[in-house]
Write a structure and sequence with these properties.
DNA replication; alpha+beta; DNA-binding; Dna Ligase, domain 1; 17 helices; DNA polymerase, domain 1; nucleotidyltransferase; single chain; ubl conjugation; Alpha-Beta Plaits
DNA sequence: TGGGGTTAT
DNA sequence: ATAACCC
C-alpha cells in the first residue's frame, strides 16, 4: 500500500530500502497556517467588512478577529464585553455555524493535495505537507545551468546564511519555493492569505510558520533549530505539551525548554509514563519523527451547542433534534454512512474544569440504509435512539443542569464496496437486508439500545 | 472559553 | 468511555 510506504519512509529513517537511494533520511516539511481564518472567510463573504475591525463571535466570545481589530487591542478568545470596551467600533459576526469555514477549509486541503497527496490537517486552518518527494523530483530536474533557480523564498530564521554546497540547505530552499507557490495558489484560487514554515520535521515547521506573522513564510535551517526551540519562553508553548502535561511538569520544577532537556529521563518516565516522557523530551530537543499522516476524509461529524442551562428532557430533546437535523444534512453530502452515534453532555459544575460524559451505540442497520435518501424518515427513529442514550446518562427523575449537548456520527464506512469472495465481503457488516444472515457482533463494546 | 477535530489508553 | 492533544 502506498500509504504504508510513505509512512515508513518518513518515520523509520536508517537501514531501509524504502528510503529512495541516494537521499538521506532527512525530510522537508511545510506547515501552512491561514491568517485569522474565520475572519478571512467572513470578509470574502462580505467584502465591506475588509476595511473594518472585525470579530467572529461564538456565544459571548470573540473567537478570532482580523488584523484591523488586533491593532486596536482585540485578542483571540476575548470576552465580547471586553472586546467592545477596548474597541467600540468592532464589527461582530456570528460564527457559531461552521459550515462555510469547514467548506473553505477542505478547499485549502484539496489545493495542497494537488502539490503532494501527503497532507495532514490540524484543525480547520492548518495543514502539514511532506514535500520530501517533490523536492527530490525538482532536484533531479534542476540542471546546473540555471543559477537563479537556487534562491530562497521568504525569510530565513535568524538570517542564517544558506550554504549552497550543503544538500540539506538546498532541499529546504526548494521547499521554501514550493511553500511560496502554495501560498500563491491559495491566494489566487481561494483568496486566502496565510503563513508557512519549512523545516525538517512537523514540530520545527510549525514553530517556524509562527515567526513572521501575517502572510509571510520562514525557512528554518538545521543549524538554527536549537535557537528556535530555546526562543520559547515556556514549555507550554511547545506543540504537543498541553495543559495537563504542563501542570505536571511544573510540579517537577520544569518550566523552560532547557529544564526539560536536562531533566532525568528515568524520573520523567516514572512520572509521565514512558510514552509521553520520551516523546516530549525529544520534542524539547526539536526532534519529532512523527510522520505527516494524510488526513483523508473526516473520521467523524459532530454538532454541538452550549448554553447556560438545560434542565428538562423536552428541552434536551428539542436541542438534540436541531443538532441531528444539521448532522443528517452533512452526512448526506458526504456519501459515506456512519455506523455509530454518540451523545455527549456537559453537566453544570460551579468551579470544576471541563468534563464531558458520553454514551454511544451502533446505529440500527435499518436506519443506516435510509441515510442516503429521505432525511425525514430517519429523524424520528434516530431521536429515539439518542433519547435512550440521554436517559442512560441523565436520571431525568432527578433535577439536572446541563450546559452542553453534542451529537456525533462516527465509524464511517464507504457504502458497500465489498465484493464477494474478498476478505472485505466476510468482514463488512451487510448494508442490505437479504445477504448473509446472522449477527455480525464483532467486539462492539457499545451499548446496544435494543437490549434496554 | 467555542465548536469543532484526532489519537491513545 | 474517557483523557489527552490540536485549532
Amino acid at each position: 500500500m502506498k500509504r504504508a510506504e510513505a509512512g515508513e519512509a518518513g518515520s523509520w529513517p536508517v537501514h531501509d530500502q524504502v528510503v529512495p537511494a541516494g537521499s538521506s533520511s532527512s525530510r522537508v516539511i511545510v506547515h501552512v497556517d491561514l491568517d485569522c481564518f474565520y475572519a478571512q472567510v467572513e470578509m470574502i463573504s462580505n467584502p465591506e467588512l475588509k476595511s473594518k475591525p472585525l470579530g467572529v463571535q461564538q456565544k459571548y466570545l470573540v473567537v478570532t478577529c482580523n488584523y484591523e481589530a488586533r491593532k486596536l487591542g482585540v485578542k483571540k478568545l476575548m470576552n465580547v464585553r471586553d472586546a467592545k470596551e477596548k474597541c467600540p467600533q468592532l464589527v461582530l459576526v456570528n460564527g457559531e455555524d461552521l459550515t462555510r469555514y469547514r467548506e473553505m477549509s477542505y478547499k485549502v486541503t484539496e489545493l495542497l493535495e494537488e502539490f503532494s497527496p501527503v497532507v495532514e490537517r490540524l484543525g480547520f486552518d492548518e495543514n502539514f505537507v511532506d514535500l520530501t518527494e517533490m523536492v527530490e523530483k525538482r532536484l533531479e530536474q534542476l540542471q546546473s545551468d540555471e543559477p537563479s533557480a537556487l534562491t530562497v523564498s521568504g525569510h530565513v530564521y535568524g538570517n542564517q546564511p544558506i550554504n549552497l554546497h550543503d544538500i540539506l540547505h538546498i532541499r529546504l530552499l526548494i521547499g521554501s519555493q514550493i511553500a511560496a507557490e502554495m501560498r500563491e495558489a491559495m491566494y489566487n484560487q481561494l483568496g486566502l492569505t496565510g503563513c508557512a514554515g519549512v523545516a525538517s520535521n512537523k514540530l520545527l515547521a510549525k514553530l517556524a510558520s509562527g515567526i513572521f506573522k501575517p502572510n509571510q513564510q520562514t525557512l528554518l535551517l538545521p543549524e538554527s533549530s536549537q535557537d528556535l526551540i530555546h526562543s520559547l519562553n515556556h514549555i507550554k508553548e511547545m506543540p504537543g505539551i498541553g495543559y495537563k502535561t504542563t501542570k505536571r511538569l511544573e510540579a517537577l520544577g520544569i518550566s523552560s525548554v532547557r529544564d526539560l532537556q536536562t531533566f532525568s529521563s528515568k524520573i520523567l518516565e516514572k512520572e509521565l509514563g514512558i510514552s509521553v516522557a520520551q516523546r516530549i523530551q525529544k520534542l524539547s530537543f526539536g526532534e519529532d519523527n512523527s510522520p505527516v499522516t494524510p488526513s483523508g476524509p473526516p473520521q467523524s461529524f459532530s454538532e454541538e451547542d452550549s448554553f447556560k442551562k438545560c434542565s428538562s428532557e423536552v428541552e434536551a430533546k428539542n436541542k438534540i433534534e436541531e443538532l441531528l437535523a444539521s448532522l443528517l444534512n452533512r452526512v448526506c453530502q458526504d456519501g459515506r454512512k456512519p455506523h455509530t452515534i454518540r451523545l455527549i453532555i456537559r453537566r453544570y459544575s460551579s468551579e470544576k474544569h471541563y468534563s464531558r460524559e458520553s454514551r454511544q451505540c451502533p446505529i440500527p442497520s435499518h436506519i443506516i440504509q435510509k441515510l442516503g435518501i429521505g432525511n425525514y424518515d430517519v429523524m424520528t427513529p434516530m431521536v429515539d435512539v439518542l433519547m435512550k442514550l440521554f436517559r442512560n446518562m441523565v436520571n431525568v427523575k432527578m433535577p439536572f443542569h446541563l450546559t452542553l449537548l453534542s451529537v456525533c456520527f462516527c465509524n464511517l464506512k464507504a457504502l458497500n464496496t465489498a465484493k464477494k469472495g474478498t476478505i472485505d465481503y466476510y468482514l463488512t457488516p451487510s448494508l442490505s437486508t437479504t445477504s448473509r444472515s446472522g449477527k455480525h457482533s464483532f467486539k462492539m463494546k457499545d451499548t446496544h439500545m435494543e437490549d434496554f
